[in-house]
Amino acid sequence: MKKHNTVFEALHWASSFLTEHGRDANAGRILMQHLYGTDYTGITMRIHEEMPEQKWNEFREMVEQHAKGKPVQYITGTEEFYGRTFHVDESVLIPRPETEELIVGAIARMKKLFGENVELKLADIGTGSGIIAITMKLEWPHAKVTATDISEAALETAKRNAAHLQADIDFRLGDLTEPIAGEKWDVILSNPPYIAYHEREEMSDVVLEHEPHLALFAEEDGLQCYRRLAESLPNLLNQPALIGVEIGYQQGEAVAKLFQASFPQAEIEIVKDINGKNRFVFCIIDV
Ligand code: GLN
């Protein structure tokens, strides 16, 4: 290729190179936006500009990494969640859009149960990059938010995000609810690992080779974290209280049953995501 490609030529090259490697052709555009620190419109405005050699080399390297299977978000080091930019690296799961719906569903139920932006104690179990804890703190400033994770590296990433987004969070290292035991909580949210090990075969190499398995997989057909949450939470909740968890689309009935066994008096809902798949279980404990 000649030395001074225009942005247009580079994007054109990237889209055919990525297609040849079975990847999403649009990734080139996202990587270009990252390289120039701009958005879609910004790139369109520079589309006929020549790229300095260094920028072209960087671009080519990023596109090649993605062609080999590295997720775009780990290349740019960022992902958007609930309108904010979070830092991500291979210590944490890449935020998924479904999890934004967990936030929406939790806030709607919290408003009904407690009243808007009242003071309350909220814990995010298995915080990963910190998206749930940080978003809740910023959307519900009167919440006292605690976030736990078993991975020290993940907790470092979450702390970095909290500092950057100026969210005051109490981070605690440990397994599931262990770090929040001995206290009472009003809201518990979690998007724990929920993929069964036997589902590996159907998963893409982009996920399997890069995202932390600790954040993806769980024993007992993916249900272990929900079982352990359901067992430990009865001692840890105020009344009223709300529990909201993200689940695998086939786990609705099983997860609802686990929580119903621990909270026979609770109102338990299995809620679908925007794609019409069971994706969340909410438990309202209010008697
Ligand atoms: N809570 C984080 C998220 O929703 C991490 C989830 C996880 O690692 N299983 O992305």
From TrEMBL:
InterPro entries: DNA_methylase_N6_adenine_CS (IPR002052), HemK-like (IPR004556), N5-glutamine_MTase (IPR050320), PrmC_N (IPR040758), RF_methyltr_PrmC (IPR019874), SAM-dependent_MTases_sf (IPR029063), Small_mtfrase_dom (IPR007848). It holds the Pfam family PrmC_N. It comes from the Bacteria. Substrate binds at N191, P192, P193, Y194. Its EC number is 2.1.1.297. Residues 9-77 form the Release factor glutamine methyltransferase N-terminal domain. S-adenosyl-L-methionine binds at G126, T127, G128, S129, G130, D149, N191. One of its GO terms (biological process) is methylation. Residues 117-199 form the Methyltransferase small domain. Keywords: Methyltransferase, S-adenosyl-L-methionine, Transferase. Methylates the class 1 translation termination release factors RF1/PrfA and RF2/PrfB on the glutamine residue of the universally conserved GGQ motif. Belongs to the protein N5-glutamine methyltransferase family. PrmC subfamily. This is Release factor glutamine methyltransferase. The gene is prmC.
